[in-house]
C-alpha cells in the first residue's frame, strides 16, 4: 500500500511517500481487528511537533503520521458495531493515519453520517471531540454564555466556532493574527472577530467591560495573562495547547481576586481514564452532524504525496481552517 513515513526527526520536509505492506486485522495488537480502506487523513498540530520529536507521544522511527482518518470498513469481527462497507471516521491516535489501509480497535471507529464527505470526516474527530471535552465536560458551558477562542482560524479554533453556538453559546469571539484568518473565522461561525494584538481591550469594549465566560486557549504563550483578565466573574480559561511555543505560568492570586478558573483539558487522557467516553461523545455529536444542526468542517485538501507540505502549513502558521490529505 502507499503510505507517508517520517524516517528522521527533521521536521515535515522529511515526509516521504513509500510502498509498504498492508496491515492485517490484529496488527500490531489483537484488539486492532477492524480493517479500514482509508480515503482521507486529518492533519493536526501534534503531527508537526512529532516530526521534530517535540510531542509527548514519540512513535518509533520510521513512523506513519496522522491521528485521524475517514474511509470504508473492509472487514470487522462479527458483533462489532461496524461492518464491511460502512463509511466511518476513526482515530489512529497519534500516528498511523496517512496510509491506504489501517487496522484499529472498534472503539475508535465511528459511523459517518451520509451527509459528511470523507474529507470533512477525516478532519472531524480529533478537534470536535477535544472541543466537546473542553466546552461540555471540563468547561461546563451553559446556554447564553460567551466564548472567546484563540487560534480561531485553526483546527481547534474552527471546531470551537462550529460547535459552541449549537451547545448554547450566545456569542463567539474569534481571536486571529491576520485579516485573511478573520474571514476563515467568520465563515466558521464567529459572531465577532478581533486581532490577537490588543485583543484584551477589544474584548472589554465588545462586552461592555464585563469580559467573557469561557476562553478556549490552544495557543498559550504571552496571551495567557490577558486571557485571564478577559474573563467575567465565574469565567473559565480552558488550557488546550501551546502553539505559541511557550507554556505560560499563572499567578493564582488572579484566580482568587476575580473568581475565575484555569481548567486543564487533556482529551486523550480523559478518554483513557473514562471507558466509553469516546462513544458517549460521538453519540452526542453524530445526530447534530447528520441533521445539519452543526456544519461539517470544510478542510483545505492536499494530495497524499504533498503530506509534508500539509503538515508544514500548521508549523509555519499559514494553514487556514482544518487541513486534510486525500489518500485514495
Ligand atoms: N488538549 C487536548 O486534548 C488537545 C487535543 C487536540 C489538539 N490540542 C492542541 O491544540 C493546539 C492547536 O491545534 P490545531 O490542530 O488546532 O492547530 P492549528 O490548526 O495549527 O491552529 C493553531 C493556531 O494557533 C495559532 N498560533 C499562534 N502562534 C502560533 C505559532 N507560533 N505557530 C503556529 N500557530 C500559532 C495560529 O493562529 P493565529 O495565526 O491566528 O494566531 C493557528 O491558527 C495544539 O497545541 C494541539 O497540540 C490539544
UniProtKB/TrEMBL annotation:
SUPFAM superfamilies on file: GroES-like, NAD(P)-binding Rossmann-fold domains
Pfam families reported in the protein's UniProt record: ADH_N (PF08240), ADH_zinc_N (PF00107)
Annotated ranges, domain Enoyl reductase (ER): 11-325
MF-aspect GO terms: oxidoreductase activity
Coiled coil: none
PANTHER family: QUINONE OXIDOREDUCTASE-LIKE PROTEIN 2, SHORT-CHAIN DEHYDROGENASE/REDUCTASE
Protein name per its UniProtKB record: NADPH:quinone oxidoreductase family protein
Amino acid at each position: 500500500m502507499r503510505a507517508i513515513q517520517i524516517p528522521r526527526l527533521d521536521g515535515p520536509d522529511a515526509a516521504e511517500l513509500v510502498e509498504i505492506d498492508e496491515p492485517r486485522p490484529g496488527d500490531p495488537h489483537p484488539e486492532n481487528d477492524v480493517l479500514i480502506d482509508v480515503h482521507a487523513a486529518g492533519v493536526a498540530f501534534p503531527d508537526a511537533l512529532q516530526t521534530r520529536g517535540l510531542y509527548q507521544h514519540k512513535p518509533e522511527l520510521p513512523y506513519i503520521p496522522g491521528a485521524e482518518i475517514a474511509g470504508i470498513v473492509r472487514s470487522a469481527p462479527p458483533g462489532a458495531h461496524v461492518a464491511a462497507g460502512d463509511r466511518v471516521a476513526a482515530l489512529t491516535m497519534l500516528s498511523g493515519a496517512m496510509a491506504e489501509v489501517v487496522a484499529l480497535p472498534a472503539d475508535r471507529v465511528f459511523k459517518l453520517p451520509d451527509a459528511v464527505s470523507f474529507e470533512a470526516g477525516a478532519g472531524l474527530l480529533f478537534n470536535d471531540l477535544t472541543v466537546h471535552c473542553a466546552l461540555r465536560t471540563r468547561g461546563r458551558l451553559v446556554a447564553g454564555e460567551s466564548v472567546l477562542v484563540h487560534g480561531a482560524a485553526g483546527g481547534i479554533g474552527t471546531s470551537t466556532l462550529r460547535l459552541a453556538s449549537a451547545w448554547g453559546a450566545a456569542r463567539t469571539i474569534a481571536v486571529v493574527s491576520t485579516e485573511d484568518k478573520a474571514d476563515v473565522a467568520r465563515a466558521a461561525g464567529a459572531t465577532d472577530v478581533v486581532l490577537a494584538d490588543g485583543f484584551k481591550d477589544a474584548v472589554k469594549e465588545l462586552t461592555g467591560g464585563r469580559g467573557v465566560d469561557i476562553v478556549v486557549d490552544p495557543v498559550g504563550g504571552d496571551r495567557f495573562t490577558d486571557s485571564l483578565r478577559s474573563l467575567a466573574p465565574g469565567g473559565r480559561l480552558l488550557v488546550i495547547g501551546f502553539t505559541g511555543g511557550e507554556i505560560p505560568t499563572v499567578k493564582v492570586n488572579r484566580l482568587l481576586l476575580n473568581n475565575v478558573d484555569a481548567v486543564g483539558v487533556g482529551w486523550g487522557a480523559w478518554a483513557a481514564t473514562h471507558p466509553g467516553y469516546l462513544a458517549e461523545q460521538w453519540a452526542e455529536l453524530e445526530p447534530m452532524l447528520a441533521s445539519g444542526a452543526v456544519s461539517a468542517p470544510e478542510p483545505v485538501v492536499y494530495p497524499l504525496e504533498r503530506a509534508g507540505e500539509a503538515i508544514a502549513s500548521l508549523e509555519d502558521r499559514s494553514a487556514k481552517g482544518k487541513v486534510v490529505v486525500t489518500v485514495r
